[in-house]
Structures are given as structure tokens and as C-alpha cells.
Amino acid sequence: MKAISKMITIRTRSRFEIIDITAEVEKIVREADVDNGFVLIHEPHTTAAVTINENDPSLFTDFINIYTKIAPPNGEYEHNRKYMGIPSEQNAHAHIISSLIKPSVVIPVINGRIMLGTWQRVLFIELDGPRTREVNIIVYY
Length: 141
Ligand code: ZN
What we know:
The chain has three helices and eight strands; from the N terminus they run E-E-H-E-E-H-H-E-E-E-E. It is an alpha+beta fold. It has a single domain (3-71, 91-140), classed as Jelly Rolls, CATH 2.60.120. It has a five-stranded antiparallel beta sheet, covered by helices on one side. Zinc ion is lined by residues 79, 89, 91, 95.
């Protein structure tokens, strides 16, 4: 199996943010000039995630409202305790939500086209921003 790999950088602006990266994925698949295979979108972070869903800002607000009900940022977590007197990053909520959503998605590429449904978009989910994030987009064929 062969692969073409590209990395994109995302600069997030707030603690929670959902960013549509479909155009970047489509561009990389187009430039790969692959007929049939699949594309893996993978973010190498423990406090972010990727998913496929609709690009609708009101839905993004709903997602974040539900995520923070599951793991409230101001909740009590072992991960957030001081370690040897040093305050830790207050981001246990982000690790927990990230582990539920997952760091990667795979999409088929058929006849050079990424097979997303009409309303499907590739979404990067920031859970502990603002940060500079990387996303690897790997086309296998
Ligand atoms: Zn942490």
C-alpha cells in the first residue's frame, strides 16, 4: 500500500472551537491524484478530536453544551490536582471528551472523490484552546 501524507496547522482561538477542515482534506486528496483508496484524518493531540458532521454553528454550540455536561471544565478531577505543589493544567475535561470523540476518521476515496454525504463535513474539535494544532491527512491507495 502506498500513502501520501500532508500535515496542516490550525491556530485555535478559544477554549472550545469547532473548525471545518473539509476544504483542506479535499485539496490534499485532489493533489494526491488518487483514483481509489481512502483518506485518514488524524490529529495527534490528547485534548482535541475530529469527527464528521454538519457544519452548522448552532449545532456546534449544542455539541459543546453537551460535551461540557458530560465533562464540565470546572469539575473535580484527579488530573487537575496539584502535583508536588505545582498546579497542573486544568484540562481533564478536554482529555475525557477527546477520548470519547476520538482522534481520527477515515473516508473512502472513489474515482478521485472523497465520499462524504451531502451534509457531511470533516470537523476539527478544539477542547483546550487556544493552541496551535496539527492534523495529518494521509491518502492511502
Ligand atoms: Zn492534561
